[in-house]
Design a protein that fits this description.
alpha+beta, 5-stranded antiparallel beta sheet
Length: 731
């Protein structure tokens, strides 16, 4: 027995792919087990016969194995086959010619795999993709998908028409133009769906912007879906409703006040003696007038909350003292219903930054609600300090809420699940108002309840540091000035990511010097009256009486001021920081909201820097290749190169770069000439340039340009750390 031949036969049949050989007459001479399994034909049925599975085509037409005009081997060709049972299948095939030692063709070998299931799956996938694409473009809402840096990935037909942008996957559409207050960044931070309503000047409509984060396999946000809904009609209807409610409510208040006063005087006997029966009816009238007044007040409060016309008078308040005060006002009612009124606190003093009267209104609504539905037991108010927020709960031992009704408790005019006792009436607005007030404070409110076991309403309020309180007060003063002068103002925020680490390493004095220098230079550039600064360990708030157009111009200058100040301290030059800003009255007319908007708009300077367009101008291919590798390692994503000065000017004419790395010795047009051309054009005269040169630079040729803008120089071969530092400063 030929063991080698036996091994070859076993291997031939054990290979998981179908294999067969054909002779020079194209008849099958070998056929393995997998070929039998895929086609249904046994070796005995096909040996000595042409490869008839493609009998609808001639071999030269379809197979191409023996076609001298086709390059061999044939790799991964897709074919349809007819199996023995008559069904149609799909295979992916590779083939080559077998030659003897003298190079003569003696046979052909073909290998194929069954991809019928994959093909069917691909057809289904394509069908689903077409259905999804059709649905995606059918939506009348504007939908755009971006990456986390807000670069547009794709958008639907409605977005295309609204912004007159062509839907073309081959075109890079750049960054999405965000509306004021877009919750894009907030969705990345919270990893939740976020929604805002705003008026967009470009669209000329009221819109609702919803951002939904998408997650990769590591559960990290990598895409954001933006859904922009036109709510102009709804806003108009809401405005009409609000106007109606406001008008009717105000018109009712005057006669109701008169009626109440008249009834009170009669009831008190000021206008003559009354009988017991008359006093009973007058008391009922007085109660109904008071109830009607409460309804009107609730309607007005709800209307203001929905219209976002509530001005919060925030201040630092003692939350424990506030709860004690509210609880004392309910003590007579606790006694009347023979209920135990309890309070508990995690600390004897808990400070929050909130509107005192509005929080009293929330507590009053929740405690009053608990009293309505508790006949025995207790009502408890608790407050727990949780670091960045305080959590308050109003707990009762009452009837509880049915599970199916819990989701509805904060809806307007809903009085779900619990039956009122005699004389207990409500508008169904108290809990909706409480939720509205908590939302305005950027807190959360929810309910936990079981039927016949009691109910627990919990709400949270963000705590405000003393430093933040100072900032809010400073912004408020600037707003009063801006309103009086009828001009814009800006809140500019700088957040240092590793501030505390650097301060611990180098000391508070050095970091204070850096911040003071930033502020001093900032004042010199902006030149505004009554500047205000706040330092709170990691953030710097700069207030200016400049508007939106000005801040667009000087925001990059502010970044360069920060970098320039840090560069004075060698070890600190790569400090990471973010910048954000908000403008009155474009973004908000509230001090708190402007500060929060500036916080929400923070953009990491390093991420922004990575998007900068860098143009390398150098005729040395090896240097260009090395620079591209180095810049890629630094994180720069958009690097292009040209070989000489003329090509550089042509490229800049198409697309102005953010930074240019320029060699001075090049054919056709050298670096000096390039700089000369750039300085003559207002569009290009301020392009940041980094000169790379292996020879001394003739600065006398650049005097006119350098007087306007200093140009840093790095020698060849260059120091990589020095290159990174200079790019960080220029970007």
């Amino acid at each position: 027995m030929d063991v080698n031949n036996l091994s070859g036969e076993l291997l031939f049949d054990l290979i998981p792919s179908a294999i067969f050989f054909v002779d020079i007459n194209r008849n099958i001479i070998k056929w393995n087990k997998k070929a039998e399994e895929i086609t249904g034909y046994s070796a005995s049925e096909v040996l000595g016969k042409p490869f008839f599975m493609f009998d609808q085509y001639s071999c030269d037409e379809k197979c191409d194995l023996y076609n001298n005009n086709i390059k061999k081997p044939l790799i991964a060709r897709d074919y349809a086959i007819r199996k023995k049972d008559g069904t149609l299948g799909h295979i992916i095939k590779s083939a080559d010619l077998w030659r003897d030692g003298s190079g003569q063709i003696i046979s052909g070998i073909e290998i194929f795999e069954d991809i019928t299931v994959r093909k069917e799956f691909e057809v289904k996938i394509w069908a689903l993709a077409e259905e999804w694409e059709s649905a995606f473009n059918t939506f009348t809402d504007l939908i755009v998908i971006t990456d986390i840096d807000n670069n547009i990935i794709r958008f639907n037909q409605a977005y295309s028409q609204a912004f007159n942008i062509e839907i073309d996957p081959s075109i890079a559409h750049g960054k999405m133009e965000c509306v004021a207050g877009c919750p894009h960044q907030k969705s990345i931070t919270t990893k939740k769906i976020e929604t805002i309503e705003t008026y967009d000047q470009k669209l000329g409509r009221f819109i609702e912007v919803t951002t939904c984060p998408l997650f990769n396999a590591d559960l990290q946000v990598y895409r954001i879906v933006h859904i922009i809904k036109d709510i102009s009609v709804r806003k108009k209807a809401e405005q009409l409703k609000d106007d109606l409610v406001s008008t009717v409510s105000h018109e009712l208040r005057t006669p109701l006040t008169t009626i109440r006063e008249a009834v009170s005087q009669v009831l008190d006997g000021l206008l003559g003696e009354t009988t017991p029966e008359q006093r009973e009816f007058l008391s009922m009238c007085l109660q109904d007038v008071d109830r009607l007044m409460r309804i009107i007040n609730d309607l007005l409060d709800m209307s203001k909350i929905e219209a976002k016309r509530v001005d919060l008078d925030k201040q630092t308040i003692d939350f424990v003292g506030l709860i004690k005060q509210v609880q004392n006002t309910f003590t007579p009612r606790f006694r009347e219903k023979q209920l135990e009124g309890k309070i508990s606190f995690s600390h004897e003093q808990i400070e929050v930054y909130a509107d005192r009267d509005k929080i009293i209104q929330v507590l009053t609504n929740l405690i009053g609600n608990a009293l309505k539905f508790t006949s025995t037991g207790f009502v408890e108010i608790s407050a727990v300090d949780k670091g960045d927020k305080v959590e308050c709960a109003v707990i009762d031992s009452g009837k509880g809420i049915a599970r199916q009704d819990i989701a509805k408790v904060f809806e307007k005019f809903k009085q779900v699940g619990r039956v009122y006792g005699p004389g207990e009436k409500g508008t169904g607005l108290g809990l909706a108002i409480a939720k509205g007030i908590v939302d305005l404070h950027k807190g959360e409110i929810w309910v936990e309840s079981q039927e016949d076991k009691g109910t627990k309403f919990i709400f949270t309020l963000p705590k405000q540091t003393a430093a933040e309180s100072i900032v809010i007060e400073s912004i408020d003063r600037l707003l009063k000035f801006s309103r009086k002068e009828q001009k814009e103002c800006t809140v500019f925020l700088i957040s240092f990511h590793n501030f505390k680490t650097i301060e611990e390493k180098y000391g508070k004095e050095r970091m204070d010097m850096i911040l003071d220098e930033v502020f001093t230079q900032f004042k010199q550039i902006i030149g505004f009256a009554q500047p205000i600064i706040m330092k709170n360990k990691r953030q710097l708030v700069l207030l200016s009486d400049t508007g939106n157009q000005d801040v667009i111009i000087w925001k990059d200058k502010v970044k360069k001021i920060i970098k320039g100040s840090l560069l004075k301290y060698e070890d600190n030059w790569d400090t990471a920081f973010s910048c954000g800003y908000a403008v009155y009255a474009q973004d908000s007319d509230s001090a708190i909201n402007l500060f929060e908007q500036a916080q929400n708009s923070l953009v990491d300077a390093q991420k922004e820097q990575a998007q900068k367009k860098i143009l390398i101008v150098d005729d040395d291919a090896a240097v260009v290749h090395l620079l591209k590798d180095i810049l890629s390692g630094f994180g720069y994503l958009n690097v292009i190169s040209v070989n000489d000065g003329q090509d550089a000017l042509a490229k800049i004419e198409e697309d102005i770069p953010d930074i240019m790395l320029l060699d001075m010795q090049m054919p056709r047009m050298n670096g000096y000439e390039v700089i000369g051309h750039l300085k003559e054009d207002i569009r290009t005269k301020d392009i940041p340039i980094l000169i790379m040169s292996g020879q001394p630079v003739a600065f006398e040729k650049l005097n006119e340009y350098i007087t306007k803008k200093a140009i840093p120089v790095i020698g060849k071969p260059f120091d990589i750390r020095q290159l990174k530092k200079l790019l960080w400063l220029l970007a």
